[in-house]
Each structure stands twice: as C-alpha cells, then as structure tokens.
Amino acid sequence: MNDPRDTQGSDAPSGGTPGAPVRSGIPEHGRIPKYYAVKTQLESLLDELGEGGALPTERDLAARFGVARETVRQAVRELLIQGRVRRKGRGTVAAGPKLEQPLSLVSYTEGVRRQGKVPGRSLIGLDRVPAGAQLAEQLDIGANDPVWHLERVLLADDERVGLESTYVSVDRFPYLERDFDPDSSFYAFLRDQLGVRFAAAEERIETVLATPREALLIGTPPALPMLLLNRVSRDTDGRPVERVRSLYRGDRFSFTTHLTGA
C-alpha cells in the first residue's frame, strides 16, 4: 500500500531565467513528486560519497527523508538507469563516470583504454552459420554462403558492460577459428595479422531493451535501457569487411563524435 505521505509533491523555489529551459526537471508551478525530491538529495549524497561509496539502506533513507521505502526505491531506480549508482552484492554504491566511446573507426579495446580502463571480452561462441538474405546483402556475398558469428560479452575492468556480435565471411577469413584469440581485439587481428585496413563504415544507433537472454549475459535487469549500434565496415577497396551488432549498457556508456561545418 502506498504511504499517504507520498501523495503530495514538494514545494521548490521558482527562480530561473525568463526563457531558459525548465529548471532541472522542476515544473513551473514549483511542485515536484516526492521521489524526485528524494532523488535530488541522493545525488548530493552520492557526490559526497564518491565512486564506490555505499548508500545507506532503503529503510535508513526512508527514515532520513521522511518518505515511504517505495519512494526511495523509485528514486534509486532512476539513478540506476542514469548510471549514477550500481548494484554491488546486496547493496547500492556510487558509480563512476560513464565510459565515452568515440563514434569512429576504432575498436572497443582502444576506446576503453583511452579512459584508463582495462578492456576485456568473454567468448560466448564462434560459429559458422548461413548468411541469409539481409546479411548477405550487407557483406556482398551469397545468401547461402557461410559466415562466422563471433559473440562476446564486453568487459571494462572486469565489469560486464555490453554484448557484441560480429559477422564476417568465411570465404574471406577461412582460418578465423584457428588463428584468432577471442579475448583480443578483432580490429587489431585484422590489421596486424591479415593486413586489413578499415576506411569507412555505416552505423545506426538506437535505444532498445535487452532480450531476457541478453540481459542475463550482460548481467542487467531487462528493463534497463540499452544503446544498440549496428555497423557495416568497409576496407580501403570499398569491400564490406564485417557487420557488427553491439549492445551497450545505457547506464555505463555514452558516445561522442566530432562535428565540423560543411
């Protein structure tokens, strides 16, 4: 049953500059839901705690803020989605800043290393499968031609942060199963061992929810928003090299790019 204390909003000072955006999510009438007021106070507490600092229990927070535990729970859920906190064992701790992955022709490994994190991958499977019509068109091969499907969990400092599926032509890379170390960078393997140079890519980004299987592999709740990247990369001759489907945790990743005028 909902606590009657949480049926009303909280007053907030008006303030703000005329014509400015809505102030930090606070409506113009100055009344905000109780959970949002708690969330704002928790954000200040997280700044004090620093990365890895443990939040008090729901019971203690409810007593501190004078609200029901469900109100605290809702505030913490939003902070989880935003990546401000993460679960650790049976508790909740302050999370570090999101990982910034550049939207460019660099590997996941390079992007994570630039931020002082240790990249890693955990192999789910490396299998030969028929291409099918859509994948065949993307890789410029026959629909019945075989492709390698390389599926790996992405890690940053041993934390599971994503899931990556890579498809390449078996005819072009016949010895992938024998020669490639699945714990290493696929881009580095293609570049250093096979002399493949990437020149261009088409990439699409969207927000999705993980399937139950994906959520289990990444170790997240199914309701956590994900960032999905679909990419087809080409070499310097314009030939398709790979088709990659990368699923990143929305609470742990952001993407950056550099834009210039025409």
UniProtKB/TrEMBL annotation:
InterPro entries associated with the record: Bact_HTH_transcr_reg, Chorismate_lyase_/UTRA_dom_sf, Tscrpt_reg_HTH_GntR, UTRA, WH-like_DNA-bd_sf, WH_DNA-bd_sf
Pfam families: GntR, UTRA
Matches recorded under SUPFAM superfamilies: Chorismate lyase-like (SSF64288), Winged helix' DNA-binding domain (SSF46785)
Domain HTH gntR-type: 32-97
PROSITE patterns: HTH_GNTR
Chain positions covered by the region annotation Disordered: 1-28
Keywords: DNA-binding, Transcription, Transcription regulation
Recorded superkingdom: Bacteria
Protein name (database record): GntR family transcriptional regulator
